[in-house]
């Protein structure tokens, strides 16, 4: 594991602290070369938003794995459908995307999260993760 993070919107009182973005920042601080980044995999519970998906592309990450689609703000599905229409000549390549991993486990975890935090993603997830003693809890990590 290279980096790990969780969303801290409520705790930090900020909005640009998505788990994916924070994990990418932590990985980037380690100054991995391009070739190593292309071999990295980002794992996350929810489909990354456009901001986080763009950060993954610009960080040259090779693959993203996520559990649940995020129809309201997910960026992976949309980007996969439109990438070739707009990026014919670019140093950035569309990374490989794999959705639906551990889908049932993640759905159960998300349901418990919403019961504790009715406002959804604007809440701090660390408290919930600790209360359920889950290692894999609304966070992201790299391999």
Gyration radius from CA atoms, angstroms: 15 Å
Largest sheet: 5 strands, mixed
Can you give the mean pLDDT?
81
**Helix and strand composition category:** alpha/beta
Kindly, what is the distance between the CA atoms of the first and last residues, rounded to a whole number of angstroms?
5 Å
Could you say which overall geometry the principal axes of the C-alpha atoms support? globular
Q: What is the N-to-C succession of helices and strands?
A: EHHHEHEHEHHE
Strand order of the largest sheet: 1-5-2-3-4
Low-pLDDT residue intervals, each spanning 5 or more residues: 132-138
Taken as a percent bin, the fraction of beta residues is: 15-25%
Number of strands: 5
DSSP summary: helix tally: 7
Helix content: 40-55%
General description of the model:
The protein has 7 helices and 5 strands; from the N terminus they run βαααβαβαβααβ. With about 140 residues, the chain is an alpha/beta fold. A 5-stranded mixed sheet has the order 1-5-2-3-4. It starts with a strand and ends with a strand. It has helices at about 10, 20-30, 35-40, 50-60, 75-85, 105-115, 125-130, and strands at about 5, 40-45, 65-70, 95-100, 140. Mean pLDDT is about 80; it is low at about 130-140.
């Amino acid at each position: 594991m290279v980096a790990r993070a969780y969303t801290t919107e409520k705790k930090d009182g900020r909005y640009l602290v998505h788990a994916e973005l924070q994990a990418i920042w932590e990985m980037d601080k380690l100054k991995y070369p391009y070739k190593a980044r292309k071999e990295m995999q980002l794992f996350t519970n929810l489909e990354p938003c456009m901001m986080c998906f763009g950060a993954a592309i610009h960080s040259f990450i090779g693959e993203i794995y996520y559990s649940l689609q995020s129809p309201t703000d997910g960026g992976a599905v949309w980007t996969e459908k439109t990438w070739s229409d707009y990026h014919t000549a670019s140093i950035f390549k569309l990374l490989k995307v794999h959705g639906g991993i551990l889908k049932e486990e993640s759905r159960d975890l998300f349901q418990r999260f919403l019961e504790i935090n009715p406002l959804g993603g604007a809440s701090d997830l660390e408290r919930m993760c600790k209360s359920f003693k889950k290692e894999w809890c609304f966070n992201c990590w790299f391999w």
